[in-house]
Amino acid sequence: MTLDPWLLERLVCPVTRQPLRHDEDAQELVSEAAGLAYPIRDGIPVMLVEEAREI
User: Fold this and answer.
1) What is the secondary structure of the chain as a DSSP string?
2) What is the pLDDT of residue 3?
3) CB-based contact 39:28 (threshold 8 Å)
């Protein structure tokens, strides 16, 4: 499942406010600056720090 490019352009990391990279294989939005990966569940990004995994 691909993420809408319009949405991806507007989403930022809630910790650093930096842009995110979409990892299609893992279905995650990755914040290189924060070292976190936010899951995408059923096509919806879960932008909660508590739900992110450390990379």
Assistant:
1) -PPPHHHHHH-B-TTT--B-EEETTTTEEEETTTTEEEEEETTEE---GGG-EE-
2) 86
3) yes
Residue with tokens 């992110």: 52
State pLDDT tens for residues 15-55. Answer: 999 999 999 999 999 999 999 999 999 989 999 999 999 99
- Decide if 11 contacts 20 (C-beta within 8 A): yes
Q: How far apart are CA 52 and CA 55, in angstroms?
A: 9
Query: Tokens for 10?
Result: 């507007």
CA dist., res. 50 & res. 34, Å (int): 13
pTM: 0.91
